[in-house]
Amino acid sequence: MQNDTEKKDSIISIKDVYKAFGDLKVLNGVNLEVYSGENVVVLGRSGTGKSVLIKIIVGLLQQDKGSVNVLGHEVSQLNEKELNDLRRKIGFSFQNSALYDSMTVRENLEFPLVRNVAGLSKADVNEQVESVLESVGLSQTINQVPSQLSGGQRKRIGIARTLILKPEIMLYDEPTAGLDPITCIEINELINEVKEKYKTTSIIITHDLTCARQTGDRVAMLLDGQFQQTGTFEEVFASKEERVKSFYDYNFIQ
Ligand SMILES: Nc1ncnc2c1ncn2[C@@H]1O[C@H](COP(=O)(O)OP(=O)(O)OP(=O)(O)O)[C@@H](O)[C@H]1O
């Protein structure tokens, strides 16, 4: 019998994926289904291959073996134009937010819109910038430059800049890295608000167990090149598997 999650569409389907760099075997048979509208957290120690997996999902790297299907497309079969079309439906939230320092918040948000969406009037652009800024709770910063913002605010603007293109999939890379605990919780709440408001399907890469607990509908732990444990945070946390337990023991939960 199918449960509620299994009845939903699979947005990202990863089947038996292998990737090695020379003798270094990074992914050794990775399987993961990410269903429409869910937040899946990928946990794993440094160097376990989380970024490699994300790069394979967006076609920046090719797997040696296995299948990666995103929004119904087999990524390794796409040509450059098809890949670009697919990437337009995927929003990346990078660790360092990657804002343009010399541009105001308004200009930072206008930039991806004007570059990617043809035929928008000035009024459309203004409306969309103001609306996305309101979604991340930072309307008052519209005329500021990134150096005038806190780390948490920069992170929010980075997320807004991604959301303005209305992605179907969001990929968050260490969204809470370098932020204080209160700001971390605010960013976790924002990730959940984005899911509700923009109906996104997300993969969140993190070492932060509080982030995993607060944002993950499901958590997948990458160990020795495979997802050894996938389930709710509580299910994975209850694991008796030594390597999973040792990951938790090393990572402080607030
Ligand atoms: N293009 C590449 N060529 C060779 N080796 C690579 C390449 N990309 C990644 N690797 C290696 O693959 C392994 C996994 O790297 P990856 O960046 O995916 O780790 P990660 O889990 O994202 O780590 P972190 O949490 O520190 O970001 C590392 O040993 C890395 O050196």
UniProtKB/TrEMBL annotation:
Q: Which residues form the ABC transporter domain?
A: 12-249
Signal peptide region: none
Q: Which Gene3D superfamilies does the record cross-reference, listed alphabetically? A: P-loop containing nucleotide triphosphate hydrolases
Q: Which UniProt keywords apply?
A: ATP-binding, Nucleotide-binding, Transport
Q: Which SMART domains match?
A: AAA
Q: What is this protein called?
A: ATP-binding cassette domain-containing protein
Q: Which Pfam families match?
A: ABC_tran (PF00005)
Single GO molecular-function term? ATP binding
